[in-house]
Design a protein that fits this description.
Layout (H helix, E strand, L loop, with lengths): L2 E3 L2 H8 L6 E4 L3 H12 L5 E3 L11 E4 L4 H7 L2 H7 L1 E2 L2 E5 L5 E6 L11 E4 H8 L4 E3 L3 E8 L4 E7 L2 E7 L1 E4 L17 E2 L2 E12 L6 E6 L4 E7 L2 E9 L7 H11 L5 H12 L4 E6 L1 E3 L7 E3 L5 E2 L7 H16 L2 H4 L1 H30 L4 H13 L2 H4 L1 H8 L4 H5 L5 H12 L3
Parallel strand pairs: 1-9, 2-3, 2-13, 6-16, 13-21
Antiparallel strand pairs: 4-8, 5-8, 6-7, 10-11, 11-12, 14-20, 15-18, 15-19, 16-17, 17-18, 20-22
Helix pairs in contact: 2-5, 2-8, 6-7, 8-10, 10-15, 13-15
This protein binds flavin-adenine dinucleotide.
């Protein structure tokens, strides 16, 4: 079944008798997660997506255990396990490529749930297991919020049609353009690291459970297994990438005294890829997530730097919480649902985002001297210390039932802020 290209018209027809007519903008990880959560409650959210119906594999994702409640709610755990690999070990190499340490992820994350590698494409198809209607090549041109509804102008094939919804969920990613159409658009705070990188695929090796990183002087190399291959990220200061992947790979090779086989394969994959995906390492944080009838979700609300590898995890958690809370709309009203959602979830997501920002300051450096000092610290610090703020978030997992009853947020928000304060 999976994602099905379905016109806006037929989706709107099916949604007519729902307790709430919901439009989800963006069939990415957050949008599909929320849509499927609502479908499991018997609703028929209308989902639109700007891209063509092409299903590329996309890039690699390492998913933390905060995705598990959604996976279980949707009843897709067997397929999720089949489509992904367990990431049981995390290794660090020195700035010169020597093996520094390998930590077992068991014991750090095990008691919270799974830590797994999967491609974005397989994740979307897994979330859409059972069928998820999406109108591809469709965008929003305008939005007007009224007291009782939102009028949205939807454009497919250059033709605009106005539709009424009770709620618009804006889930169109880190560079969301739809959020700018919300009346009184909220300011977006951006941290731009000045670094960027390329994302490519390399051949799989026998270490299917091993994620590995080199935090170099002026570069970062990460390799992350998924099923049947290894995702590679090679990044550096954006200015140094101007001369292209092959030239940058040469400068990285020159800095390495040890080139392990996987590192060699990863660097070759970057140099040889005719069109590697270029990723500018900045983020974005919306000051406000909700109006009376709109809500930002996933990266459109808070887009992440990749350093902690948690953006998709938080997007799926937020979608799960929002999906559960929306079911309480008939009892407590949409305004109250959205207010309680933002009060509970925004501090958690921002704490995770702060952690990624702090890690970026630690990881992204040109200096060899800093790399050497960092490695001395890393000999003593395990991945457990690096992940401590995330563990704190996992220890205080959200409880949608409590949030709906108005008791879910203050102490959790304080715990999340505390976690962020001691990050990095
Ligand atoms: C290379 C890379 C590696 C990553 N690795 C990890 C990781 O290991 N672990 C992790 O947790 N996170 C990771 N992330 C972050 C994660 O991918 C994001 O946090 C996550 O995808 C957010 O989900 P989203 O649905 O908000 O956005 P997206 O998944 O980006 O989805 C947004 C969707 O909206 C669509 N869209 C855009 N504009 C419009 C529009 N105007 N109208 C309609 N549709 C629109 C897009 O085509 C897209 O399908 C990584 C990100 C990248 C780029």
């Amino acid at each position: 079944m999976g994602l099905r290209n379905t016109s806006v018209e037929s989706q709107v027809e099916r949604a007519a008798d729902d307790p709430l007519r919901v439009l989800v903008v963006g069939a990415g990880i957050a949008g599909v997660s929320l849509a499927q959560s609502l479908r499991h409650a018997g609703w028929h959210p209308v989902v639109i997506e700007r891209a063509r119906d092409e299903r590329p594999p996309g890039y690699m994702l390492a998913l933390m255990p905060m995705v598990d409640p959604l996976i279980d709610d949707l009843g897709i755990r067997p397929r999720y396990l089949a489509e992904s690999v367990e990431l049981g070990r995390y290794a660090f190499r020195s700035h010169a490529g020597r093996a520094l340490r390998t930590d077992s992820m068991a014991g750090i994350l095990d008691r919270f749930g799974d830590y797994r590698g999967i491609t974005r494409g397989r994740l979307l198809e897994t979330l859409a297991d059972g069928g998820c209607d999406v109108a591809f090549e469709t965008t929003v041109a305008a939005m007007t919020e009224h007291r009782e509804s939102v009028t949205v102008s939807l454009v497919t094939d250059g033709v605009a049609r106005e539709r009424e919804f009770d709620l618009v969920v804006v889930a169109d990613g880190i560079r969301s353009s739809t959020r700018e159409l919300i009346p009184g658009a909220t300011p977006i705070e951006v941290v731009d690291t000045g670094w960027a990188g390329w994302v490519v695929w390399a051949e799989a090796d026998a270490d299917t459970d091993l994620a590995e990183e080199i935090w170099g002087a002026g570069f970062i190399l990460g390799t992350y297994p998924v099923k049947g291959r290894v995702g590679v990220f090679l990044g550096g200061p954006a200015d140094d990438l101007q001369s292209g992947p092959a030239a940058f790979v040469d400068t990285v090779r020159a800095k390495l005294t040890t080139i392990a086989p996987r590192v060699d394969r990863a660097l070759r994959a970057v140099a040889d890829d005719p069109d590697p995906y270029y990723w500018a390492l900045d983020d974005g944080r919306a000051a406000r997530w909700t109006t009376a009838r709109t809500v930002l979700l996933g990266d459109a609300a808070a887009g992440f730097l990749p350093t902690a590898g948690i953006g998709a995890g938080m997007a799926m958690e937020s979608a799960w919480v929002l999906g559960r809370l929306l079911r309480h709309t008939p009892a407590i009203g949409l305004g109250e649902v959205l207010t309680r959602y933002e009060a509970a979830q925004r501090p958690r997501v921002e704490a995770a985002q702060d952690n990624s920002r702090q890690l970026a300051r630690y990881m992204f450096s040109r200096s060899r001297a800093i790399a050497v000092v960092r490695e001395t610290t890393m000999r003593l610090l395990s991945v457990e210390v690096v992940l401590r703020p995330i563990r704190r978030l996992l220890e205080a997992q959200p409880d949608p039932g409590r949030i709906a009853s108005g008791h879910g947020s203050p102490e959790r928000a304080a715990a999340a802020r505390h976690a962020a304060g001691s990050a990095g």
